[in-house]
């Protein structure tokens, strides 16, 4: 079924002209420069599509019949900066007046169908270049300098219909480059388009071919999808077509596992709902020159890691994956219920394994896993019976992730029971208020023992090493349990602990 209603084609072209107005002079100048040298030049792909949709892009992709060395000569002296890192693929880049242009020679790539790497060959016609592109909405162009609209595959009509199609047959397109199937999922979310039935059928049939794509490229496409305003439609495409079975099988696994209530939602639907609610809690990025966005309910103080600004990849990945441990921990209870004991610990390990396989960086992997591990901690808070010690440990264990943990915990409430939802919300409001009070009193974000390492060494007469580490952890536990007790009392507690340690006895029996 087509996606949301889109404007007619004439309105789309008018929107494109308005959006391109600020850069029309630059494009005309560049087109005349290439034309004078006997070469064609056209704005192509994403910038044309985005202009048609009324979106603005500071990056301008162009294509030409000029070879890379000819393009480089024409850009030299025109742009403020020049680079050729894409020369192997026929691309030369330049920057002028704040705009970035990348000009690629017409391509006629050939794929061997066993890897994604094409054999690059140059073409001589714009139409040949457009037919090799992934989707019709990306196969539109504006010839320069006269801005003639070129659309041999009716990409404009597809935008008006809200449909995602390929210029050639979907089987050939995805056979050439299986990563295009993941891009299709992203465009469903990013552009609000629906898959053409033939495109969807080809994706189902060829989902397994995604295995030849490198983990890094799959990761990059997943990240782009997760950072769209509404990732859910694209994630549903990945699951429905079987692509998730290849690159994120845990997502498919949740679809077959009902939650502990065994009523109104399965774990998959719950996870997508939590993701959507987490995104709603992110703070909008501040407008240029406006400073930091104002705080909103659910946002933590800057000392706890700062407000969570949209889009936040760590929060979104944690929200999507927070319950991936449930399928592995599901147990059917004698009373007919379903339990998932310790699924947060199992899920944290599973998330670490999956994110490592997708070549995510260590910091992202560690942060997502830690949030999953902690996402149930609040549910032991009940009606606020936690001691100050428990609150301190909650803050300390979350560390700089506390802001995100606040949002993940709030987003994880998907109950339809209005009374229960209100109780959970008020309970977490109370926890955040207690955290703010203790932060103001004790600087929880930077909590430390009241004696530092050097002072511990001096009091105990020991050298730096494992014993010092244990002593430090003991004083930290005292600090967390009892708050600030003063340096004199902390010294006394340290000495009392020391006499119970075997190293203290050994030290006493050493000869002078």
From TrEMBL:
Residues 421-448 form a coiled coil. Residues 288-305 have a biased composition (Low complexity). It is an enzyme of class 2 (transferase). GO terms for molecular function: CCA tRNA nucleotidyltransferase activity; metal ion binding; nucleotide binding; RNA binding. Its EC number is 2.7.7.72. InterPro entries: HD/PDEase_dom (IPR003607), HD_domain (IPR006674), HDIG_dom (IPR006675), NT_sf (IPR043519), PolA_pol_head_dom (IPR002646), PolyA_RNA-bd (IPR032828), tRNA_adenylyltransferase (IPR014065), tRNA_CCA-adding_enzyme (IPR050124). Pfam families: HD, PolyA_pol, PolyA_pol_RNAbd. The keyword Transmembrane helix does not apply. This is CCA tRNA nucleotidyltransferase. The lineage of its organism: Bacteria, Bacillati, Actinomycetota, Actinomycetes, Micrococcales.
